[in-house]
Amino acid sequence: MRIVVALGGNALLVRGEPLEAGVQAANVGRAARALAGLAGDHEIVLTHGNGPQVGLLLLQAEAYREVSPYPLDLIGAESEGMIGYLIERELVNALPGRNVATLLTQVVVAPDDPAFAAPTKPIGPVYPASEAERLHRERGWAVAPDGTYVRRVVPSPQPLRILELATIRLLVEAGVIVICAGGGGIPVVLTPEGAVRGIEAVIDKDASAALLAVGLEADALLMLTDVDAVYLGWGTPEARPLRRTSPRAFAHHAFAPGSMGPKVEAACRFVAETGGLAGIGALRDAARILTGEAGTLVAPD
Question: What is the pLDDT of residues 130-151, one digit of tens each?
């Protein structure tokens, strides 16, 4: 099978761990070893999140005020290259003799997407309210409450097109394990003349993973996170995991918009558009999710 595998933040950083390079490398090494068996039996394409790393890069930028802050498309490209390198290196170690490549990936969004008028995606550090107000005035940032602090929020538009899709397909068909569309991809828009321009946004990685899987005509989309399955009644005594379900069945339930919601939406979109399978679960269960032995398997109605 051709499988698009989307690695959540736990592939690089377990909750509560420091953002040290060595910690991330160790976690990526474990992820690579967990995926090695899957890559031995199937054709895999990898994508990943970048939330903590983008936050770190923004903090580092705040420490140097001699230049204007870099725009989010450049920050996204930095994180995609850094994380892609770590994953590529550890996959080469886990799969000697296999060809692995990281591809910086531009993802087109609509300049008039409603998300630009209503930023919701929190990024970077938290600020006291007075500091956030100053940043709002001086830099034009949109800010929103985050607990007792305030945080920068940016638009999260829908991904429409992956510019490097044909290149990714060529590499996959040549037997290369491709790491691409990291962090949802680098957000760009097309001008009326057809030129590519970066834009201030962060694309949801699960939505981009579904778009990638549809574009590559994958047989399965596998989203790996730090939760072992999709749960109904999450956080309550009645919580129970869903083991096998369908897009139609999912339509009767609501899930947290900032965590499981985007994964469920991505799974339902992929299955509905392709008739393939989508799996959601823990990294350690990667191979068992698609056989229905672990995680949540989403199949056609």
Answer: 888 888 888 888 888 887 888 8
The span from the CA of 272 to the CA of 90, in Å, is 34
pTM here is: 0.91
For the chain, how many residues are written? 301
CB 155 within 8 A of CB 115: yes
Q: Where are the domains of the chain?
A: 2-298
Query: How many CB atoms are located within 10 Å of the residue 270 CB?
Result: 27
Q: Strand 186-190 and strand 196-198: pairing? A: antiparallel
- State the helix-helix crossing angle for 51-62 and 72-94, rounded to 10 degrees: 130
Q: Round to the nearest angstrom and report the end-to-end CA distance of the chain.
A: 21
Which fold, 2-298? Carbamate kinase (3.40.1160)
Distance (Å, whole) CA 253 – CA 131: 39
Pairing of strands 2-7, 121-127: unpaired
- Sheet containing strand 177-180, edge to edge, reads 100-103, 177-180, 43-48, 2-7, 220-225, 277-282, 296-298, 244-245
Just list the catalytic residues: 9-10, 121, 205, 263
CA-derived radius of gyration, the chain = 19
Amino acid, res. 257:
P
User: Where on the phi/psi map is residue 13: left (φ > 0), alpha (ψ -120 to 50), or beta?
Assistant: beta
Rounded Cα distance between 270 and 262, Å, is 12
| DSSP reduced 3-state for 197 | strand
